[in-house]
Specification:
Blueprint lengths: L57 E2 L22 E2 L16 H10 L12 E8 L6 H11 L5 H13 L15 H6 L6 E6 L3 E7 L7 H8 L4 E7 L4 H6 L4 H11 L4 E7 L10 H18 L6 E5 L25 H6 L13 E10 L2 E7 L5 E2 L3 E5 L3 E9 L7 E2 L4 E7 L11 E4 L6 E11 L9 E2 L3 E6 L2 E14 L6 E4 L3 E2 L4 E13 L11 E6 L2 E11 L3 E2 L5
Parallel strand pairs: 2-26, 3-5, 3-6, 6-7, 7-8
Antiparallel strand pairs: 1-4, 4-5, 9-10, 9-16, 10-15, 11-14, 12-13, 12-16, 13-15, 17-23, 17-25, 18-22, 19-20, 19-24, 20-21, 20-23, 24-25
Length: 558
């Protein structure tokens, strides 16, 4: 792989399966000390919760525009949302390398009975989110270094590069920020991805952009995550800027909640800064404000974790914090806290669902990437892609560590498909069971919670146009009609067919998409039935799918 590539560049063909090697314990390196250098200056609860080399860092491409979406027709569904009658009317393989046909022949010779090899350790997807310049990439890089994913020679090279660019304190961020634009500006643009492991768990790190211009890319990272690590700068003035009404700390926390991140860790960074000096008063102030805000979003006490860290100095990242620095803190380190979190509920018995995040073609095979949301995928399986019910065969399967024969929920994987051309597959498609495919539609009824509308569009009404972000899909939409205004506290209908609603309102509405998108009812599958609505560069609402297809008259019932 080429870690300096803007897009993911594969380095091998995922053909013959191989068992993942057992993890080997490595001595923990001491946290990296930075060379002196100038530094750059509403609750909506879920209805239910289901039971020695540099690291390879993959960069997800920027969020796709609606123009790249498929125009496949919507699929009929049987869900019932009823309103009153008066309410509405190929590149070939290189020489000497295996082709897809070669892999198929090999698969036919293998006996897969009882051959599934699954690492017993839980796989956890963690996303680093927070305001710009809070230190997300530095914390990610430090964590990779401390877990043995980066060697000393690489760190020395990054230190030299950062110092020569007069950015001495950014060298750890270079581990995750691999493209020149990111290193030059000190701002993450695309979602960086890397992995590490401990004796207890395997982890995928998703380093999300913090700048408001790159929120669509950030959403793609959060959509894959199980746990959010909200990095907050304790430096004087920086926490306040992020927590401000227009700060990204607030928006990132809201998006994490609405996109299904189950637990969130408040990692208060830069505690070693001269303006903080491990002050308990500063820590308590930030912890109190953030905890209250997160509880207001619907997180419970047991889903919120809080700890002080120094990403640059490595304090409280892997080993517990030295009592000499902060005798008032008696909690665990960031890594130990992650290791000791309760397992995330996974549904292996449910139909297979893998939203497609990206694709590339290699040696005649189409490789697609995504996270297994439910079900189990096996090598040799026959599946379909929605929308379009495109039949495909699985001829290769791998994660970040090894080739696989089987992958379970929570795994970020790459799948080699046969039976489909690259131009017919787009981000936002869903790989699923042929017998139980995910519904696909270009219209649905949803319940919206309006956050804050743009100043020049202060009314949410029929004809409102915005962009829907649902799992990995991004699609333009139009509000066809408002069906009912809902009381936020009781959930009861307060007014049918309102002409408009304002910010902070809850409303049921009929939504029309420019192209078909695979989705589920929120009550059946929360992760594939929730979405965010963005307009003019900001998140204006979030919603959940109540009914797939247009609303029906009561007289349409049989």
């Amino acid at each position: 792989m080429n870690p300096n590539s803007v897009e993911f560049v594969p380095g091998r063909f995922f053909g013959a399966p191989a068992a993942a090697p057992a993890p080997q314990a490595q001595p923990a390196p001491a946290p990296v000390a930075a060379a002196p250098a100038p530094e750059k200056k509403e609750s909506w609860e879920d209805e239910e919760k289901p039971a020695e080399a540099a690291p390879v860092v993959e960069k997800a491409a920027p969020a796709a525009s609606s123009s790249s979406s498929s125009s496949a027709p919507a699929q009929p569904t049987t869900s019932k949302f009823v309103i009153e009658d008066d309410d509405i009317e190929e590149d070939g393989p290189e020489e000497g390398e295996p082709s897809v046909g070669d892999v198929e022949k090999k698969l036919k010779k293998l006996d897969w009975g009882g051959a599934d090899v699954v690492d017993p350790r839980e796989h956890l997807n963690i996303v680093f989110i927070g305001h710009v310049d809070a230190g997300k990439s530095t914390c990610s890089g430090q964590l990779l270094y401390l877990t043995g994913m980066v060697d000393e020679r690489t760190i020395e090279r990054f230190q030299k590069d950062a110092t020569s660019a007069n950015r001495g304190s950014w060298f750890l961020a270079y581990i995750m920020d691999t493209i020149e634009e990111e290193r030059a500006k000190g701002k993450t643009v695309e979602v960086g991805r890397a992995h590490f492991e401990t004796e207890k768990k395997r982890y995928t790190i998703l380093d999300a952009p913090g700048h408001k211009n790159y929120v669509p890319n950030m959403i793609m990272g959060v959509a894959q995550a199980d746990v959010g690590i909200l990095i907050i700068s304790a430096r004087k003035g920086e926490f306040e800027a992020g927590f401000d009404r227009n700060g990204q700390t607030r928006e990132h926390a809201i998006l994490a909640r609405t996109l299904g991140v189950r637990s969130i860790m408040i990692a208060i960074n830069k505690m070693d800064d001269e303006s903080v000096q491990w002050s308990q008063e500063r820590y308590d102030l930030i912890r109190t404000k953030m905890t209250q805000f997160l509880k207001g979003l619907g997180y419970s006490e047991k889903e919120i974790y809080c700890l002080p860290i120094s990403g640059l100095g490595g304090h409280n990242m892997k080993e517990k914090l030295d009592p000499k620095l902060a005798p008032w803190f008696t909690g665990d380190s960031l890594l130990n806290t992650l290791d000791n979190m309760p397992p995330v509920p996974r549904d292996k018995a449910a139909p297979l669902r893998i939203p497609i995040l990206g694709k590339y073609k290699e040696m005649g095979g189409l490789n697609v990437m995504g996270k297994v949301e439910s079900g189990v995928i096996r090598l040799g399986q026959k599946l379909v892609l929605q929308p379009g019910m495109i039949k495909v065969d699985v001829v290769g399967l791998a994660n970040d560590m090894a080739d696989l024969t089987v992958a379970e929920p929570g795994e970020n994987i790459r799948v080699v498909l046969k039976g489909v051309d690259e131009e017919h597959v787009h981000r936002g498609f869903v790989l699923c069971d042929a017998a139980k495919p995910i519904p696909s539609t270009n219209e649905f009824v949803a319940q919206f919670r309006i956050m804050e509308l743009p100043e020049n569009k202060s009314l949410f009404t029929a004809g409102y146009q915005a962009v829907v972000h649902m799992h990995t899909a991004v699609e333009e939409c139009t509000i066809v009609r408002l069906l009912a205004e809902i009381d936020p506290k009781s959930g009861e209908i307060t007014k049918k067919l309102p002409n408009f609603v304002r910010s902070k309102a809850v409303v049921n509405a009929h939504v029309q998409l420019s192209q078909a998108v695979p989705c589920e009812l929120f009550k059946d599958f929360q992760q594939l039935g929730r979405f965010t609505l963005r307009d003019e560069g900001k998140t204006v609402a979030f919603g959940k799918v109540l009914h797939i297809g247009p609303p029906k008259r009561k007289s349409d019932k049989k």
